[in-house]
Amino acid sequence: MTGTALTFDAEAYGLSTGHLIVPEGVDCEALSLPVFSLNKGDGPRLLITGGNHGNELEGPIVARRLVEWLPEAQTCGRVIIAPEINPLAVQAWTRNTPLDGKNLNRVFPGRADGSVSERIADAVTRVLLPMADIVFDLHSFAPTWNCAPSVVMHPVADAELMARTVRMAEAFKLPVTLVWDYHDTAGMFDIVAQNQGKVFVCSEFGGGTVSADALAVYEAGVHNALIALGLVEGKAEHPIFRQRQSTRTLKTLSSDELQSPARGIFEPRCSILDEVKQGDLVGVLHPLESLSGGAVDIYAPTTSFIYAVRSGGYVESDEELIYFARPLKL
Amino acid sequence: MTGTALTFDAEAYGLSTGHLIVPEGVDCEALSLPVFSLNKGDGPRLLITGGNHGNELEGPIVARRLVEWLPEAQTCGRVIIAPEINPLAVQAWTRNTPLDGKNLNRVFPGRADGSVSERIADAVTRVLLPMADIVFDLHSFAPTWNCAPSVVMHPVADAELMARTVRMAEAFKLPVTLVWDYHDTAGMFDIVAQNQGKVFVCSEFGGGTVSADALAVYEAGVHNALIALGLVEGKAEHPIFRQRQSTRTLKTLSSDELQSPARGIFEPRCSILDEVKQGDLVGVLHPLESLSGGAVDIYAPTTSFIYAVRSGGYVESDEELIYFARPLKL
After folding, report:
1. pTM of the model
2. Alpha-carbon gap: A130 to the closest alpha carbon of chain B (Å)
3. Which pick of A25, B221, B252, B268 has the fewest CB atoms within 10 Å?
4. B99-144 pLDDT tens trace
5. Protein fold of B258-327
6. CATH number of A5-246
7. What are the chain A neighbours of B270 within 8 Å (beta carbons)?
8. What interface predicted TM-score (ipTM) does this complex get?
């Protein structure tokens, strides 16, 4: 446990700042992760983390924007903000941590004597997580995807916690609230937090380019959630995305993942938030060597909404191309 | 010269297909690049190339879409389409060719006895280029940029060719026609073509994700240009981009490139096609280690339009952040 600590008193009233120290290990020196504590006394205890994956930069930017205006706007409670929990990956613009090749969001709760990703997870789990009852982990999708602005959670066994988490996710008022029945959740930050009874949601957004427009929608979602928690005053409004203001609560199953039938250039023929019917053309695959007639049409396997679409690009056989989603009935 | 050739007769009437053979060299086997010839007799002679840079996939996709509908729509002339002139880079999703690390668009006219990028450039220059009087090279910007849908050219010394090239670029009716006074044009495909008196334009678009919406705008631009050339019938219309239908002819100077004042996370505060005044806030740089007050505001150095904005992300000091542009007066 030696060495893992905050360098400042997060209980102090008002804005206080310092670092979360991730101790040195065999692979690198100690890391100092910037942490901001915004304490206005009794009320909700919220932790906001960004930069879990280093090529998802909306989160760190929105987290740092919050630090600018939240100290003045906040009326109660405490918000701990750690804008970049994986600075090594942020600097490298990579999903995984370059030093150990690990996905930080698959090694929670981490290990104090592990590699650097595991030591980060351990420090976040032991020092930051106990300071909050609610967690917003600000992600994006991957840079080679288009994904609906959304708040995502995985199914929670505890029905009461599940309902509270869905309500928290819906409070962002982003176009999609998604319950994702994902097959690969071992080691995720949310599982560790939910096992401690905490409300944990991930914002997802993008991917690809991080534009001023996208950041405005993302920040509006977080602002709405802060209003819903009673941390700031104001009226929550649906941000405008693609000229619409809407929210849908959807679910995605593991079987809702469409994979490429071959290698080649994927041409998307559908857009995020589209409603498609079973059999609709949703993409075309162009094998590079094709001279004619070689293009492979790709059809929607089920009537559904388009949650995320692989950006047009070269794909290998069996790579994921599209994630479908359908209405959630709780 | 041995070995560099088309495997088919591009003079045959109608649609004919085959390969451009790039001979083997010390670094790899011979490459076979798919080529489509759409010959409807007398009329304009157009060459369309895509995949010059391997991480710019709009071009190859639009080129392959053309092959689907152009044979029926075309009324005269001949169009040669080479959708992916650098398949090695396309497969690797890289700007430069992985085998020799070279930027194909900096080694024209190439060398028959050079490395693979130079051999590709040589084959394109000696076999494809002589078959056309007009060239559309379908690019995008880089994946970490937002860039206005545009047709770009570099200044041409010959005033008559310059005027013809600007008119060709404007015929796409994309939001921006740009004359870019770029400092690093040695070895570019367009310089070689223009030195032979040919009209050569580059479409640029993106970057980031290649979506169905983006592809529709891109293809509409190419369609407009085909109408202007008289190759197909129809009425050219401005594609809708960001709820607007407009075209501006702009120029960018080398001094219109804004660089990062430090390393950190770049937050864009402007969007492509915005009109900004000198001194407007256009971005914020957040150093990773910053705890407060460390953010650096970035202002527009000149009254101008935003042509391209670096996607929010981690940048090094002196990396390009924004390209400005101003109205062109011919």
Report:
1. 0.94
2. 22
3. A25
4. 999 999 999 999 999 999 999 999 999 999 999 999 999 999 888 8
5. OB fold (Dihydrolipoamide Acetyltransferase, E2P) (2.40.50)
6. 3.40.630.10
7. 212
8. 0.93
